[in-house]
Design goal:
Strand content: 5-15%
Number of helices: 12
Strand order of the largest sheet: 1-3-2
CATH architecture of one domain: Orthogonal Bundle
Order of helices and strands: HHEHHEEHEHEEHHEHHHH
Distance between the termini: 13 Å
CATH topology of one domain: Arc Repressor Mutant, subunit A
Number of strands: 7
CATH class of one domain: Mainly Alpha
Radius of gyration: 20 Å
Structural class: mainly alpha
Amino acid sequence: MDRAEEAAPGGGHRLSAGRAGRALIGVSGCIRVDRLGSAEVKRDETASVDAAGQEPADPDKEDLARGLPQELVLALVATVALDHGHGEAIASRVFVRILGDVGVNESAARAVLSRMVRRGVLLRVRQGRTVAFHLSDAGRAQLTRGRDRVLSPRPFDHAFGEWTLLSFSVPESRRDLRHQLRARLTWAGFGALRDGVWIAPGAPEIEDVLAGFPEADELTATVDLFTATPRRPTELPALIARVWDLNVLRQEHQTFLDRWETTESGRDGELARLISLLADWFRLLRADPGLPPAHLGPDWPATRSSMTFRRLYEVWERPAYEEFLALVRHA
């Protein structure tokens, strides 16, 4: 019997359509109001992984192991299930093998698969004596909403001057709902202007932000959404700097570029490289809402980041899928 899950539990200024891509990748630490909450999320994820013993066993894999296992799993299922239409469940031993190639040990890999089942992103199925996983409907919808932005050649661009203002009111008794809504808004590129008032560049669809939310009807009744244009005495550069930490955003880009900009697009170990690249790209898209470059300085690195991702993705995507199919055949 596959040991994978044997003992695991069973089962404002304006919103942008492209911005729904943040549903793919989690909570950013760049919005000031959410920084503490986001840090708690990251500490919780890291604690779970460390408790499971995650540590690159091979120094050569150390660079590939920077992504949390959940981000790496999302990257894997996004590329094989969405980009290539692979509809079959993936055996747990295949996940373990692939995650091992990016420095995640077996116990950490199995722990994250169980966690993603509990969260409703993956479904666990049995194939004879083997445990396997495939995307749930909710997980597929979540990834699909973000796919266009992930693969866009200009994922940080919006129409000039396009902003959204959103306000909401959630009772104190529903702190859980408030926290979930704030997380969704952060994913969608919003920053908190003040309590209950959020702004975002571009024009995302609020229906995409709330899609799949159990209390979507309840939340929609509390949300007011406006297209907005800044007017004096508001100075847009000062407003942007107040809502978003631009030094943090720049560092997110620089971290991505330091890792990938000079990487040679060689044909070796493409699957491990691709899912690691995608996990880092997801994290960068989550962090940067696509603020107007005119207010960010001439050396803002978003264009370099986009070009770096496209260069490597286009070389690695096809051979990575062929490598995945070979692993599945021999599982």
